Amino acid sequence: MKSMKKMRLGVISALAEEQQGLIEAMQSPYKLVHGMREYMAGQLWEIDAVCVLSRIGKVAAAMTAAILVEKFEVTHIVFTGVAGSGDAGVQVGDIVVAETLIQHDFDASPLFPRFEVPLTGMSQFPSDLALSDRLAAAAQLFLRVQFDDALQEAEKKEFGLQGPRLHRGLIASGDQFIGKRAQVLQLKEALPPLLALEMEGAAVAQVCFELGIPFGVIRTISDNANEDAAVDFMRFVTTVASRYAFNVIKNFCHLSMA
Ligand code: ADE
Q1: Global pTM?
Q2: Which numbered atom of ligand 1 lies nearest the CA of 174?
Q3: Which residue from 46, 84, 121, 152 lies 20 to 30 Å from 93 (Cα-Cα)?
Q4: Angle 48-56-138 (CA atoms, 0-180°, nearest 5)?
């Protein structure tokens, strides 16, 4: 099985704040610059890893994933970041681990069904089960054991974080920041199982599917993808999401593959 071979892990995030702690924790780090990105290679808690910022959007994420595989020879990819909620039961501060991913702005109809990536016959790309199980276990450990101490009471209060939960299911990606309730409702109507909305995961999913690389996507919910979505977005990323990502990846590295 692909997931069982010795891991060289690619860790992608969209924003610097989401990866700062990991870079600082890296053992024997060295930097390589390629295609306008800095790739930091080294060890994360004994795991051979390459960390990189994709920047925002599907093309940026696809390029980063492809370079990680082709030039840096990673065997597995994990994308960590934030997302807007795509379901009333998914709250700010919850974590979503993707089971499948879809490009919600892909529409080549009437030539192909809406959402289908032409000539692949696919609209939803599944993440790797073993990698996603391991991400989910890492996230559960964080939420159940470490969350309380990882954030100050004032920070939990500021963002209304109360007993955050883990969800697994459909994540949708598109080249838009969703900031209108009407947009979410339309997407939810077209994709009822939708849990979270972001701008990169499904692009990484397509690249990894085409290259045969196991991947996982984990997202902290930063906003409700409504009119308030942009308010305090960066503060959430800096104070909350950065600590989620750091602890979850640390747990992930310590856990053995299921
Ligand atoms: N990432 C975080 N929040 C988002 C939103 N509302 N839309 C798209 N991507 C996001």
Answers
A1: 0.96
A2: 8
A3: 46
A4: 40
